[in-house]
Design brief:
Elements lengths: L2 E4 L14 H11 L4 H6 L3 H22 E6 L2 E7 L6 H7 L4 H5 L1 H21 L5 E8 L8 H15 L4 E6 L2 H8 L4 E6 L8 E7 L2
Parallel strand pairs: 4-5
Antiparallel strand pairs: 1-2, 2-3, 3-4, 5-7, 6-7
Helix pairs in contact: 1-3, 3-4
Length: 208
């Protein structure tokens, strides 16, 4: 059974140790170790392994304040209510203000310009009220068991409880587009190459 941490309710560790901020951050760091966008933060795998736990700790803190955190053994998802990610003030509040010092000004600029492309896709889609599936990650040893689908179901239930009728996500992987389509998402926008050198897809689905 999934555990969901709503905004402002950090929650304690369960028997799997995955509902603490550090536990979720470490799980997502492992899950996203080879993600294309993670390579924008740090091209070197060793340096990336040091940066990602810090990065995801900040993301988890932001999700706890502005959405929620869903965990299952081997997987976790972060969702946001009505936003794609932290603004400048929220970024400093959750600890992401140190990003330029952690990854460098060049990588930070590429990441921000990449995210701006996602915002343009959102604007062009005409969607104004939504919940955002920010991150959903499954560790390599837990893949192939349908865990991602369960995480999506948990996030959709949380969004429904918050009164949302539309769920959005973005992905930089054509393979993930196929995977997400199996859970009911459809492509709502596409940019073939962002300043980070990656494609980006905006996908949406209704919330039951």
């Amino acid at each position: 059974m999934a555990t969901a941490t709503q905004a402002g309710q950090p929650g304690g560790p369960n028997k799997d140790g995955n509902t603490t901020t550090n536990g979720v951050a470490q799980l997502l760091a492992v899950a996203f170790a080879h993600d294309p966008l993670s390579a924008v933060l740090a091209a070197d795998p060793g340096r990336r392994a040091n940066i990602l736990p810090w990065f995801f700790r900040a993301c988890v803190r932001h999700a706890q304040a502005h959405g929620g955190v869903v965990t299952r053994p081997g997987g976790a998802a972060l969702w946001l209510s009505g936003q794609f990610g932290p603004d400048v003030v929220q970024g400093f509040s959750c600890g992401m203000g140190g990003l330029p010092w952690r990854v460098g000004l060049g990588a930070t600029a590429r990441l921000l310009r990449h995210e701006a492309c996602g915002h343009r896709l959102l604007h062009d889609s005409g969607v104004t009220t939504f919940g955002y599936l920010w991150f959903a990650g499954v560790t390599p040893d837990a893949r192939g068991q349908g865990l991602a689908r369960h995480l999506v179901e948990d996030v959709l239930a949380a969004l429904a409880a918050r009164g949302h009728h539309t769920c959005l996500l973005t992905t930089e992987s054509a393979q993930n587009v196929t995977i997400w389509s199996r859970t009911g998402f459809v492509v709502a926008g596409h940019h073939p190459r962002t300043p980070a050198g990656l494609p980006i897809w905006l996908m949406r689905r209704s919330v039951p």
